[in-house]
Amino acid sequence: MDKPPWLDDEPEIRQLLQSFAARMAKTPDAIKPLRSSLKPEYFAMNEQGNQSWALLNRLAPNFITIKPKAKRNPFDVEWFGAMVYFKPENKHLLFEWLNFKPDDSLHRWQQALSASGLAASDSVNFDNLKNSPISFPGKTDAAVIQQLFLIAKESRKELTLREISACCFWGDSKFLDNKSDWLANSFTTLSVVTGKIQVNYFLPEYYD
Q: How far apart are the C-alpha atoms of 164 and 158, rounded to whole Å?
């Protein structure tokens, strides 16, 4: 199915398709059709709106499915309450039409995390980790996840945040400085202590 030549001139239809694209990017493995209900003001209530509605219907039934509202008043616009369903099997075609490049970093992180076996550790809040990816410059997701095993092993020691960071993230003692909440939520048995303050002082031999 080729991209409709009129699509770029129909902002309301593009907006609808872009909302489907964004939702597909968040749930790339979706099987059930996505749906969206059209409000009366979605298209202009004039001849231009009627034309846009007619063009949207041209995408059915191969690309989308449209089900008009069962009970509609005689004076309601045709699209009032209509339900538009997007078929997940057309995802790649949708992305191509919109030149949409999904950010699949979360999906890739979750795949690497699931394959790591970290869920078996009793010191890890796996559900939090799944939705809270972290990255380290120049390192893959798999490499970062391997370092999380080191954090899990340190769960019974009392260490400062910077000691944990230096030990588990390639010597970078400041990597976790702004990630203390993430660390506490992800590794619930980890004991992080406050670093001791060192004070150097000098008492002169003679003073008043």
A: 10
